[in-house]
User: Fold Aldolase from Microbacterium aurantiacum.
Amino acid sequence: MSGIAVRINQLRNSEYGTSAVVAFDHGFNGMVPGGEDARGIIEALAVSDIDGILIGPGLLRQLSPLLAHPGAPRVIATLDGGTFGALPGVDHPLTHARRAVSPEWVLRHGAVAAKMILPLGLGDTEALAEATSLLGRTAAECEELGLPFMIEPAFWGAHLEKVDDEMIRHAARQATELGATILKLPAPSRPEILSEIISHTGLPVWVLGGAPQSGGGIGSAIVEWMDAGALGVAIGRNIWSRPNMVAAVEGLKAAVHHRDAARAEELFHSADLPG
Assistant:
């Protein structure tokens, strides 16, 4: 088994074979509501029995000791950051994506996989060309290191009115051609499209959670994605932006590992109440 396959397996739950990942790599544009206490969130996730955590290089450098104990979540490290405007904390469309650290650096700091975005909808095609070239070079670096490389199509540019299933299919193929060994994708509206993408690309897929939503729906949606063939999910704001993050984590595990939509919905509802 290759080093890449071994590290992908490290992201799987040893009992269930699926992967519940919490994404907390949202700080490149500043503070995100609900994510202010970065250390407190990482401390809680470190003992939560989730399978993985997605974080940026600054938090990896600072907080990796919290994730070094046996049974701690495995780390997927974000290599890049997006530019959304001249000032932090301003909600503008994405204009550029630049790599902040190397695959070798995150591997040395304990990551078992690396992740970058494929920036889509940019007005500047030269910025997109530069980004895709960098993705290809990074994929080659990761391959030399035996490090899984997750690519996330990021539909964040100003020149996108909507994202439909066909666009997700095209983006998944782009990411595959650029050298991804893992895909992190928005959920298509129809589960059969997700199954088709997984079959056609031959890659493990983590489905992302998207914008936070209160109330019902997220637990059942996760079960649908898992039934469609996803290896796991990588969900951020729908976990740590809720008042009771512990309940949300339990809901995530109920959906991913047990495919128990009713229990997951119950837990996500309780996560909207103070812990």
About this structure: The chain has eleven helices and ten strands. The first strand starts at residue 19 and ends at 24.
